[in-house]
Amino acid sequence: MTKLNIAIVGSGIAGLAAAWLLGRRHAVTLYERHPRPGMGAFNVDDADGGQAVRIDLPLRVFKSGYYDTLMALYRASGVQMQPTDHAAAFTTPQGETYFRYRNLQLGRRSVPVPAVTGRRWRRIAGEALRLMFCAPRDLASGALRGLSLDDYLRQRGYGADFVNGMLLPSFAAICTCSYDAVRRYPAEVIVGFFSSGSLFSGTWRARYGADDAIRRLLQPCQGLRCGADVVGVTAAGDGMCVVERDGREARFDHVVLAVQAHQAAVLGQATDPAAAALLARVPHESSEVVVHGDAALVPASARAAPVHFHVDPAASGPMANIHLNRIVPELSGRASVYQTWNPLLEPHAPTVIGRARFQRPLVSLDSQAAMAELVAAQRDDGRRLWFCGSYLMPGIPLLESAAQSALHVANRLGLPAPWGRD
């Protein structure tokens, strides 16, 4: 195989995975506009007790059964993983816990067990069991095809306590989006996650955080250019040219755009306007994440669980609080540190360690069709410009679909997965 000179623009997990997969055989240069690689660009330090502990912002966790490609990539690149408990409590704005579950460990299995009593939790638990048993059959039969999640839930008559009190808040946090956006998701995508077996396989994280994963995934990479603001990608003879805002240009055999869909649409417009039009159909929403030490955001009745959902019917989405001391071993014994997504309540200012805003891709029936068309187009021979990101592959745009998209590009450039599957 001829050694190729490949540029990858963007160093989120999609770009890092592509760099590791392609760098085993080819010369890879990775471009990132932030001062450090994108997956760790917003990480912060908790200096309590003198010894700083690095905190991923946002926290990245994954489940076996749904994140098989990511976990295979981590094992192959030497990233150590550890199980973590993401049991959750759901509360009203007044602080009443109406549903909570704990995770019962049975060997390698993790079984969610309801941990509060009352009529409302029984209704929620009953509907969750119905979805767990009925939805996979509906998925397998093709009954979900062409339906949004909202369509499906209405057709099957799922109750408001379950839908508004547990299902939508959970998936709004998983997808980092509003309730309305979750309702517009294809039913196949949400049910696919729900029925993947991940509910019983436990939650994992990179043992030494994103910085360690970044370092290992960059090992095969020949060049890393941080602070490089790429503004254009153009055809250059039988190759591609990467143009930076400061005027620098560099020629490559192939270019992989591992940035958000709307950014890839702009960068790829001149070379591949058809792909840019497809990418423009991917919706996005903005999210905020805050790391802080304000325990008052979590009601006392919910503090037994490491994850807390503040569910306000008047809000566009839930507030999710994660007690990081329960997740990150190095924070054990320190003053409480929380990571809050969508802060409906503002943490006490002196306790704030860091915050960041992110744009997340979403999935709709229209974007799902557009991305299937783009994936098919990337199977054409002679392509030099590639698109890579969590938005591209089937499923929720998470770490897994980002890793899958990198593997897709590697496969098209002749590199199979080193772990025996593609």
What can you tell me about this protein's structure?
- The protein is of the alpha+beta class and 422 residues long.
- Helix content is 32%, strand content 25%.
- The radius of gyration is 22 Å and the shape is globular.
- 46% of the residues are buried.
Short summary:
It is built from 12 helices and 21 strands.
Main beta-sheet strand count, sense and barrel state: 8 strands, mixed
Spatial arrangement of strands, main beta sheet? 9-8-7-17-18-19-16-20
Put simply, the count of helices is 12
Radius of gyration: 22 Å
The oligomeric state is single chain
What's the number of extended β-strand segments?
21
The low-pLDDT segments are none
Distance between termini? Answer: 19 Å
Shape: globular
Estimated share of beta-strand residues: 25-35%
Mean pLDDT: 93
